[in-house]
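tokens incoming
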């Protein structure tokens, strides 16, 4: 239960930071370079976080 709550908290933290960074790039007009966060990065990160949550949902070791 504790591990699941920590993963949920870190997921929401990462989602918030990801969208803040994306809109930061959009508002400042950053369109390339190492500091650029594009929608492809957002989709890739959301897919990874979704996969972690699916693992937690289906893996019996994460059950209460």
């Amino acid at each position: 239960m504790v591990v699941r709550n920590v993963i949920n908290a870190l997921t929401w933290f990462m989602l918030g930071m990801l969208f803040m960074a994306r809109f930061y790039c959009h508002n400042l007009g950053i369109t390339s370079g190492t500091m650029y966060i594009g929608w492809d990065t957002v989709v890739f990160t959301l897919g990874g976080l979704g996969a972690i949550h699916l693992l937690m949902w289906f893996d019996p070791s994460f059950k209460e």
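note: The chain has a mean pLDDT of 90.
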